[in-house]
Design brief:
With 686 residues, the protein is an alpha/beta fold. Helices cover 44% and strands 23% of the residues. α7 crosses α23. The protein is globular.
């Protein structure tokens, strides 16, 4: 029972009769209870973190449960939760011993009146303490805000209500070029920033007012009063002005000290003074240093960029002004990079960047977005306005033994071929192996895969899925890693293609499913997402096998959501529909992932009765500044909501994208911005 107003509490006992006795006693005292019954001390930590109880009732005499151990778990996972011990015999000595251990009191089912009185007392004390702490925290936060405002007057600060600037301090006025507050107050905040980023700012403002934005910096381009653009980072906090709720928008100042000045001098030596990008040598050094760190997930590429027909541009505006063009080109490119990207001016009119993204499709989507952004821009140089295009060449860096020189060579070659074909595009050199080499490659990997399956050298890893609604749902995306014979981690990108070509995907899927069920039985997550390959989707024996696994593991099937890619679902629509019809009655949940990358995603949402859709990560590349992508994502969200399907955005990498997704109505996000890729959670016993 979980009716409104019920007291959330944990009853730890071996007997369900005890739970019912506690529940009925509390109801008679006017405390309708939502009792969570746990019979094993090993489940206590999960219960404390997931249920947020107001009371823990322990029948400590049963089977020798140690009171000290109970309190140790309580202190670690729910130190504020009051503990009542239930014993058959209660006396002063027993009560004193329990209180020394940290419990609030000892009660007995034999004396129901005292039980009611003690529970009433402890609930009242708990709620009063919680209210007091909340009040103290609020006062502390207000004092901190006030102190920051008073002592940090060099920060540029504006207060915004309903999107309108209602107040601004002198630093803000000076930064944006306003003579006084009267000339700014009453204007929309959006008018102060470049139109491309306004969707992100709007989403962040609304989220802040609703208390769902915390300590994320927005990257914005300020539109100054003289018409120039200035790159800024904004922080947003909920505040008050004249007694009304508002958002405080702040551009923090940089406080220089000797150490920071030294770093700035070193940075000045390393960077090109015109564009601010790393010089060629320092770019190579920084890229090599990054490659020393193993990639935890996703892919790495080198991008090599050049403006098309630069000689003609130089002839039109002159040699001197052509450098101003490259500065503007670099600024536009910088705006498309993630903070984690390494970028440099590679010489002349060439630029290079080391990118880390979720998939190859994400890299290609990023490159396509850069090409479109450059092509749509009007450059104002030397009193002339001109348009230009660019070509992006891509070179892949393998996760094992990455060769920067080879990847740079591939990217430069791809760039040259792209420009030879007319430019205004991204290009990847086709380096596919011959059939003979692929066969030799597969022969090695098939041996490793079969050996790893037999020797249980696969591992599950998890990536949290965060809620944009403000409450943690305890959801995780589950991925698989293989360990080689030296116990070194091998990413799926290295062996999955060989597994697919040699009919081993179903074997890997079944290992992952079995391990996921073991994980659910042990850790009891709210929901984990498990991928199914094409071979498993069309496998008619899947349902029977899953039924046997459920019986063996006794896991709640609702904790598992099987996900199928949009591409697989589109190619095997009938088989996917039949699989969903079979698995849903068994209690499993279903999801479509990578949605939006294919030909007709809307049709798939209409035809497949899934519980979740995952919007493809390639649509996140440039989403914060691309209205067309925003409309595409919004269309998918609207269809999903109409079908009562929950939405998850894949591979979210920055706060601006998160703010736009919040504005578009996405309910969950996953990716590098949510959590540093993945951490090992389980070695499954198979």
């Amino acid at each position: 029972m979980s009716e409104a107003g019920a007291v959330p509490m944990i009853v730890m006992t071996r007997s369900q009769d005890h739970v019912e006795a506690v529940n009925s006693t509390l109801r008679n005292a006017g405390h309708p209870a939502h009792c969570t019954w746990i019979s094993d001390l090993r489940d206590l930590s999960d219960a404390l973190t997931q249920i947020n109880p107001e009371l823990l009732v322990c029948f400590s005499e049963e089977q020798g449960i140690d009171l000290g151990t109970i309190m140790k778990v309580r202190n670690q996972f729910g130190p504020e939760v009051p503990v009542l011990i239930v014993r058959a015999r209660v006396d002063e000595e027993v009560i004193a011993e329990a209180m020394r251990a940290g419990a609030q009191d000892v009660i007995s089912l034999a004396n129901r009146n005292r039980l009611q009185s003690v529970v009433t007392r402890e609930l009242r004390a708990f709620r009063l303490e919680r209210a007091l702490n909340a009040t103290l925290n609020s006062a502390r936060e207000y004092k901190q805000q006030l102190q920051t405002f008073m002592t940090g007057s060099a920060d540029a600060i504006a207060h915004v209500a309903d999107g309108i600037v209602v107040d601004a301090n002198p630093a803000w006025l000076e930064l944006f070029g306003f003579p006084d507050a009267e000339s700014l107050v009453g204007q929309p905040l959006m008018d102060l920033f470049d139109a491309d980023r306004q969707a992100a700012l709007k989403g962040a403002l609304v989220a802040t007012m609703q208390g769902k934005w915390s300590d994320h910096a927005l990257r914005m381009n300020a539109q100054l009063s003289d018409g120039s653009l200035l790159a800024l980072e904004l922080t947003l906090d909920r505040s008050e002005f004249d007694g009304e709720a508002c958002v405080r928008v702040c551009v923090p100042t940089r406080k220089d000290d000797d150490h920071e000045i030294e770093e700035q001098l070193q940075e000045a030596v390393r960077t090109d003074p015109s564009t601010g990008f790393l010089h060629r040598k320092y770019f190579i050094d920084a890229a090599r240093a990054r490659l020393q760190q193993p990639v935890k997930g996703g892919v790495r590429y080198v991008a090599y960029l050049k403006p098309d027909k630069f000689a003609a541009i130089q002839g039109d505006i002159g040699i001197m002004a052509s450098e101003d063009f490259l500065v503007a080109f670099a600024e536009l490119l910088r705006d498309q990079l993630q903070p984690s990207d390494v970028a440099g001016r590679f010489g002349g009119n060439s630029f290079a960047a080391l990118l880390e993204r979720g998939t190859t499709r994400d890299v290609e989507a990023w490159a396509e977005h850069v090409v479109q952004k450059i092509g749509a821009n009007t450059f104002l140089v030397a009193d002339k306005s001109l348009t230009a295009t660019c070509t992006v060449g891509l070179g892949m860096l393998p996760s094992t033994n990455p060769d920067l020189a080879s990847a740079l060579s591939d990217a430069a070659s791809a760039n040259r071929r792209g420009r030879d074909q007319g430019g205004n595009q991204f290009y990847v050199v086709d380096k596919s192996d011959t059939d003979t080499r692929v066969q030799a490659y597969d022969k090695i990997w098939v041996k490793h895969i079969k050996s790893a399956l037999m020797e249980n050298r696969f591992r599950l890893v998890q990536q949290p899925i965060a809620s944009l609604q403000g409450d943690d749902k305890g959801m995780f995306d589950v991925l698989v890693r293989m360990l080689d014979e030296q116990q070194k981690e091998v990413l799926p990108s290295e062996f999955m293609q060989a597994a697919e070509r040699n009919d081993l995907l179903k074997n890997i899927d079944r290992w992952v499913i079995g391990a996921s069920m073991s994980f659910c039985a042990a850790r009891k997550p709210s929901c984990i997402f498990v991928r199914l390959s094409r071979d498993t989707v069309i496998d008619k024996s899947l349902a029977t096998w899953l039924g046997n696994q459920l019986k063996a593991s006794k896991v709640d099937p609702a904790r598992i959501c099987f996900q199928v890619t949009e591409d697989t679902a589109a190619q095997y629509l009938n088989q996917t529909r039949e699989m969903i019809k079979t698995l849903k009655p068994m209690g499993f949940r279903l999801a479509l992932e990578h949605l939006g990358a294919g030909r007709d995603p809307a049709s798939l949402i209409e035809h497949l009765a899934v519980d979740f859709v995952k919007i493809d990560g390639s649509l996140m590349q440039g989403l914060a500044s691309n209205p067309i992508l925003q409309q595409k994502v919004k269309g998918l969200v609207d269809i999903a909501k109409r079908k009562k399907i929950e939405t998850i955005a894949e591979r979210v990498e920055d706060a601006n994208t998160m703010a736009v997704l919040w504005q578009l109505g996405i309910e969950f996000i996953q990716g590098y911005f949510v959590n540093a890729p993945e951490e090992v959670v389980l070695k499954a016993e198979r």
